[in-house]
UniProtKB/TrEMBL annotation:
<dbReference type="InterPro" id="IPR051091">
    <property type="entry name" value="O-Glucosyltr/Glycosyltrsf_90"/>
</dbReference>
<dbReference type="InterPro" id="IPR001298">
    <property type="entry name" value="Filamin/ABP280_rpt"/>
</dbReference>
<keyword id="KW-0732">Signal</keyword>
<keyword id="KW-0256">Endoplasmic reticulum</keyword>
<dbReference type="GO" id="GO:0046527">
    <property type="term" value="F:glucosyltransferase activity"/>
</dbReference>
<feature type="repeat" description="Filamin">
    <location>
        <begin position="27"/>
        <end position="133"/>
    </location>
</feature>
<dbReference type="Pfam" id="PF00630">
    <property type="entry name" value="Filamin"/>
</dbReference>
<comment type="similarity">
    <text>Belongs to the KDELC family.</text>
</comment>
<dbReference type="InterPro" id="IPR017868">
    <property type="entry name" value="Filamin/ABP280_repeat-like"/>
</dbReference>
<dbReference type="InterPro" id="IPR014756">
    <property type="entry name" value="Ig_E-set"/>
</dbReference>
<keyword id="KW-0325">Glycoprotein</keyword>
<comment type="pathway">
    <text>Protein modification; protein glycosylation.</text>
</comment>
<dbReference type="InterPro" id="IPR006598">
    <property type="entry name" value="CAP10"/>
</dbReference>
<protein>
    <recommendedName>
        <fullName>Glycosyl transferase CAP10 domain-containing protein</fullName>
    </recommendedName>
</protein>
<feature type="domain" description="Glycosyl transferase CAP10">
    <location>
        <begin position="229"/>
        <end position="473"/>
    </location>
</feature>
<dbReference type="GO" id="GO:0012505">
    <property type="term" value="C:endomembrane system"/>
</dbReference>
<dbReference type="InterPro" id="IPR013783">
    <property type="entry name" value="Ig-like_fold"/>
</dbReference>
Length: 504
């Protein structure tokens, strides 16, 4: 409680000091015509759980704003002509760098939409943006039959290097052999889901006891098959933390889809369940997602606390080392456990447990330490999206996008045994502008490559490339059950792509 009062007071006082000089200087004014507005949320055919677009504020001289012109500078209205109510929830998120992220979630489908971006009542840029429909909401089951058309609509990149690399170990994929061998090799001890997608319907058979996490995969596959016709495929998803395929000789390799890859395994990586679910549940069940984080990046760089920060649980030995290091160097690192589960809690060594800190509060600190948990720490996408600089541990574990990240460009690397972590923090402190540049590049990477559209593209490309390797048909195996599309949508849509013969 005292801590909260103190930090509130700290922020409040700081706010006063910073705001005072602004009153005397002449503020540049946002210019409605010069301001730019762009993004996938202005296109009818980019169907996403939460659609989004951007506003870059430009002043009368044509210069970009680099700080917030005020949270409520813009008003965004989305109307469906001819509809008395539009069931659309809109949020205008201030990224406080002179740009805004507008996101909206639709609860019904419309024949067209008008997106109006207004500055003091005047239209901004080319507003109103007219989305000629049909404009479908996420729940509308209306798959685009042509993969080509969908990929083009979504502006998907032609390829993902990680997919090329993962599949390069599999010159071909034999669904019959996999259906026979994979449950035998992994089905007993592991949590596996055997999926078949056939005629764009999803079928599943689970292996192992702990298969609760299938809900993330089920939900994603249903969402994807509502949007696009997925090729017929048969594949196994590993619901556990660790990648499974440890063999190295190509003739016995089995393709397993996992949320985390490692240098010592041949699993095929997918975006993590955490990132996947946050895409599906943006403006829904989750509060931390790649968009919300952009509106909560804490104070500006210059005002961030210069202590390196970490919170988490004791899921790996290096995390114990990190907390010990922090206790020995309190002026450099604030690292503490919020939970003890894996190791015995020794308070003398690791200090008392501390209260859970809201993720958004991490960004009060300039340096964010990313250290492995059980496997890769799935917080990295969110850390990158903030405007702090990430210090990332070298690790054998990786997520689907790590291959595209470059040390010293998007993050500051440190050794897996933490032996150079203090040096790297010291370097960042002594090279503030370089560190800030790395922070901004990491953020730009996250803003460009880790949003919902990219996640949909990644999965689809993966399935498409994988399908090409199959030497025989995907089959609906014995004991597989259909994963049904939800039927409880309040506002059913009419899909223009479906034949009317179903409608009796
Ligand atoms: C202004 O912002 C836009 C959008 O982020 C960017 O593309 C452009 O390069 C910026 N212009 C300048 C001069 O920085
Ligand atoms: C920065 O954070 C550290 C560790 O949490 C704290 O001890 C220190 O007082 C903070 N510095 C300022 C200026 O608030
Ligand atoms: C894992 O592989 C990557 C890419 O080859 C490499 O940069 C990294 O150092 C390796 N890390 C470990 C701990 O094996």
């Amino acid at each position: 409680m005292l801590r909260e009062v103190l930090s509130w007071c700290f922020l409040f006082c700081l706010g006063l000091c910073v705001q005072a000089p602004l009153v005397v200087s002449v503020k540049p004014a946002p210019n409605a015509a010069l301001t730019s507005v762009w993004g996938p949320g202005l296109e009818a055919n980019v169907v996403l759980p939460a659609r989004f677009f951007f506003i870059q504020v430009v002043d009368n001289e044509g210069r970009n704003f680099t700080a917030s012109p005020g949270e409520n500078t813009f008003e965004v209205k989305i109307v469906a002509p001819g509809e008395p109510f539009s069931r659309i929830w809109i949020q205008v998120l201030d990224r406080r760098d002179g740009s805004f992220l507008v996101r909206y979630r639709m609860y019904a489908s419309y024949s067209s939409l008008h997106v109006e971006v207004l500055l003091k009542g005047a239209h901004v840029a080319k507003s109103p943006y007219i989305l000629k429909g049909p404009v479908y909401h996420d729940n509308c089951d209306c798959p685009e039959a042509s993969a080509e058309a969908w990929l083009k609509n979504m502006h998907c990149p032609p390829s993902f290097p990680q997919i090329q690399r993962d599949l390069s170990y599999f010159p071909s994929v034999d669904p019959d052999r996999n259906a026979r061998d994979i449950p035998r090799r992994f089905g007993q001890r592991q949590s596996l889901c055997h999926y078949t997608i056939k005629d764009n319907q999803v079928y599943i058979k689970t292996h192992g006891e702990h298969v609760g996490f299938r809900i993330f995969m089920d939900a994603f596959l249903l969402s994807l098959t509502r949007k696009v016709k997925v090729p017929d495929i048969e594949f196994f998803v590993n619901l556990g933390d660790w990648p499974l395929e440890k063999k190295r000789t190509p003739d016995v390799l089995h393709p397993i889809f996992s949320w985390c890859g490692s240098n010592d395994t041949r699993d095929i990586v997918m975006p993590t369940y955490d990132l996947t679910e946050s895409v599906l549940e943006t403006m829904g069940r989750v509060s931390l997602d790649m968009m919300s984080v952009q509106a909560n990046t804490g104070p500006p760089w210059e005002e961030k606390n210069g202590t390196a920060f970490w919170r988490g649980r004791d899921s790996r030995k290096e995390r114990l080392e990190l907390v010990k290091l922090g206790r020995a160097h309190t002026h450099l690192i604030d690292a503490a456990f919020t939970n003890f589960f894996f190791f015995e809690h020794n308070e003398n060594l690791y200090g008392p447990l501390v209260k859970h800190v809201s993720f958004f509060d991490f960004f009060k600190f300039k340096y964010q330490i990313n250290v492995d948990g059980t496997v890769a720490a799935y917080r990295l996408p969110y850390l990158l999206a903030g405007d702090s600089v990430v210090l990332k541990q070298d690790s054998p574990y990786y997520e689907h996008f790590y291959r595209d990240l470059r040390p010293w460009e998007h993050y500051i690397p440190f050794k897996s045994d933490l032996s150079d972590l203090l040096d790297q923090i010291q370097w960042a402190k002594e090279h503030d502008q370089e560190a800030k540049k790395i922070a901004m590049a990491g953020q730009q990477f996250a803003r460009t490559h880790l949003m919902g559209d990219s996640i949909f593209c990644y999965y689809f490309k993966l399935f498409q490339e994988y399908a090409k390797l199959q030497v025989s048909e995907a089959k609906i195996r014995e004991e597989m059950e259909l994963v049904e599309q939800p039927k409880d949508d309040l506002f059913p849509c009419f899909c223009h792509r479906k034949k009317v013969k179903d409608e009796l």
